[in-house]
């Protein structure tokens, strides 16, 4: 499917990767770009229409799908992370509940709201932003990793089910990105613009799973080895 002349709805689109998706969509000639944000403002980037969306509120997801009934590509990008001191941190339970509301249940709500819209518009595509954390859980990000693992599992089931309506589902796996979420941390980071471009390339190539960077590919490839990376992790 081509990005040119498509209508794209992006969750969590006010900054970081979401905004990069919006700008890349416009660069490729998308007919319309909807930016799902919690608090729409009067200041809008040319060509990007802000739409009220809190992915943890099912009613706003359904309202957004009704308002944006011409959508042909959905990008489930919204996500949050919380650092905990360890897996034994007492705050771990509350952090996990908060993260799952956005990263897992939110993804389900938005996907359910927009799947009928995509079907009516010929099928289209869904991009679910996942992570290397699906397969490699760092102790400080254990809650986040669990949410992304759950989202990966749901993505794989969603892909099978939506084939009947000709909706492609792309699982996008990426390691750390240079966004507000990683600000202040020293590590190798992917540029959001490059990730968005690769994701749209994947949609146009009918890819079902995309591993953006070398580390993510290394983690995935190790799964079938006798000593997968998650059992013998690098220094973290």
Automatic annotation (TrEMBL):
Q: Does the keyword Oxidoreductase apply?
A: yes
Q: Which PANTHER family match?
A: OS04G0390700 PROTEIN (PTHR43391:SF91), RETINOL DEHYDROGENASE-RELATED (PTHR43391)
| Native organism taxonomy | Bacteria, Pseudomonadati, Pseudomonadota, Alphaproteobacteria, Hyphomicrobiales
Family per UniProt?
Belongs to the short-chain dehydrogenases/reductases (SDR) family.
| Protein name, as recorded | Short-subunit dehydrogenase
Name a GO molecular-function annotation.
oxidoreductase activity
Cite the InterPro entries for this sequence: NAD(P)-bd_dom_sf, Sc_DH/Rdtase_CS, SDR_fam
- Supply the alphabetized keyword list: Oxidoreductase
Instruction: Keyword check for Translocase, yes or no.
Output: no
Q: Which GO terms describe its cellular component?
A: cytosol
Q: Name one Pfam family in it.
A: adh_short
């Amino acid at each position: 499917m081509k990005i040119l002349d498509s209508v794209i709805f992006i969750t969590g689109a006010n900054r970081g990767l979401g905004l990069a998706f919006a700008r890349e969509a416009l660069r490729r000639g998308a007919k319309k770009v909807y930016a799902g944000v919690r608090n729409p403002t009067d200041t809008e980037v040319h060509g990007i229409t802000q739409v009220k969306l809190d992915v943890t509120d099912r009613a706003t997801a359904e309202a957004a799908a009704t308002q944006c009934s011409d959508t042909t590509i959905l990008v489930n990008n919204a996500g949050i992370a919380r650092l905990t001191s360890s897996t034994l941190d007492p705050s771990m339970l509350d952090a996990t509940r908060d993260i799952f509301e956005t990263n897992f249940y939110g993804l389900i709500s938005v996907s359910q709201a927009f799947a009928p819209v995509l079907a009516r518009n010929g099928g289209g595509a869904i991009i679910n932003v996942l992570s290397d954390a699906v397969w490699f859980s760092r102790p400080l990000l254990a809650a986040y990793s669990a949410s992304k693992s759950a989202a990966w599992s749901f993505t794989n089931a969603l892909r099978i089910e939506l084939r009947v309506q000709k909706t492609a589902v792309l699982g996008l796996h990426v390691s750390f990105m240079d966004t507000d979420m990683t600000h202040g941390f020293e590590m190798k980071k992917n540029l959001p613009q490059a990730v968005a471009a690769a994701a749209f390339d994947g949609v146009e190539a009918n890819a079902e799973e995309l591993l953006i960077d070398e580390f993510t590919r290394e983690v995935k490839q190790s799964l079938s080895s006798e000593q997968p990376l998650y059992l013998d992790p690098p220094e973290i």
